[in-house]
Amino acid sequence: MPAAHVYTVAFQGIEAREVDVQVHIAHGNPYFGVVGLADKAVGESRERVGAALSAIGLALPPERIIVNLAPADLPKEGSHYDLPIALAILAAMGVLPAREMAGYTALGELSLDAALTQVAGVLPAALAASEAGRGLICPAASGAEAAWAGKIEIIAAPSLIALVNHIKGAQVLRAPEPKIADDERPVADIKDVKGQETAKRALEIAAAGGHNMLMIGPPGAGKSMLASRLAGLLPPLDAREALEISMIQSLAGELRDGAISRRRPFRAPHHSASMPALVGGGVRVKPGEVSLAHLGVLFLDELPEFHGIR
User: Fold this and answer.
1) CA 173 to each of CA 47, 105, 152, 157, 304: distance values in angstroms, whole numbers, following the listed order
2) d(Cα 194, Cα 190) in Å, to the nearest integer?
3) Which of 37, 89, 263, 293 is most buried (CB neighbours < 10 A)?
């Protein structure tokens, strides 16, 4: 039996690298293996996929099932491989059309009841799918952010059974629409600051020229109050900048409801924050505060107290 293919992505920083999820079912003792430099979360997808298929009335065939995540030398991390693995297995079983499924990039986490759970990084994945000329399959909760990728086919499904019914033509899912975040909440305004004319002038110059700024003074002088108003002096993000920032927020899991904001970010990490929290990193690499402040304001209060700066 030929291998079935569904595509997904692996994240390297903000870049979404294409991953070919290949499934081969052969005669032999029942076995379900995942190969291709997968971490523990990807390996555990075997249990989630098996339970999700059982929840929709299907069972894994009592044969030898091999899932290969190619390229095999690229590390694979995260739970978003659940959905492409499940779809590739369904294609290999003949439940879904294998040729059609090879034209999609998919990502999403499966619950044991076959519901699709929101995952991080859908926006970069959608942009990568657009560049590759493929459609995108994602959880319904992530559909709004995927819709910003442009004119590509996007299937945003609440569950695996709804997705299968849509592909087979038994139930049509609505195409998601892009959302803009509600930015009606008030912004700290520099006009509320009484006095401090020299400091306010310095803030205006820093905002106009995109300069860094260092404020020194005794406690209670108003440094934090002034700094919190710097973002309000900056112009709204244009479409390209908003998309760029939203990609970073999507990877960090901070893009609420998939809605993109036109407001400049303001990040104020505590001085006890670790170095990975500031610059990014961790077991599953995520953007840090420096990246999340891109095109906005990074406020380092009590600067000498930050680790590595003294």
Assistant:
1) 27, 17, 15, 7, 54
2) 9
3) 89
CATH topology for 4-177 is Ribosomal Protein S5; domain 2 (3.30.230)
Angle at 16 between CA 13 and CA 18, to 5 degrees: 140
Identify the pLDDT of residue 283: 65
Give residue 62's pLDDT band: very low, low, confident or very high (50, 70, 90).
Answer: very high
Residues 6+ apart with CB under 8 A from 269: 277, 278, 289, 300
Distance CA 87, CA 116 (A): 12
Residue with tokens 């619950």: 111
3-state DSSP: the chain helix, strand, coil percent, rounded to 5? 35, 20, 45
Element of type H or E holding 124: helix 122-132
Distance in angstroms (rounded) separating the CA atoms of residues 32 and 117: 23
For range 164-188, the mean pLDDT: 87
Number of other residues whose CB lies within 10 A of the CB of residue 298: 17
Residue boundaries of the structural domains of the chain: 4-177, 190-305
Which of 23-43 are b and which e, b meaning 16 or more Cβ less than 10 Å from the residue's Cβ? Answer: bebeeeeeebebebebeebbe
Predicted local distance difference test score (pLDDT) of residue 29: 94
Spatial distance between the Cα atoms of 297 and 6, rounded to a whole number of angstroms: 40
The reply to whether domains 4-177 and 190-305 share a CATH topology is no
Can you say whether the dihedral through the CA atoms of 60, 61, 62, 66 is positive or negative? negative
Per-residue pLDDT reduced to its tens digit, 275-298: 888 998 766 678 999 999 999 999
Inter-helix orientation angle 45-55/160-167, to 10° = 70
CATH topology of domain 190-305: Rossmann fold (3.40.50)
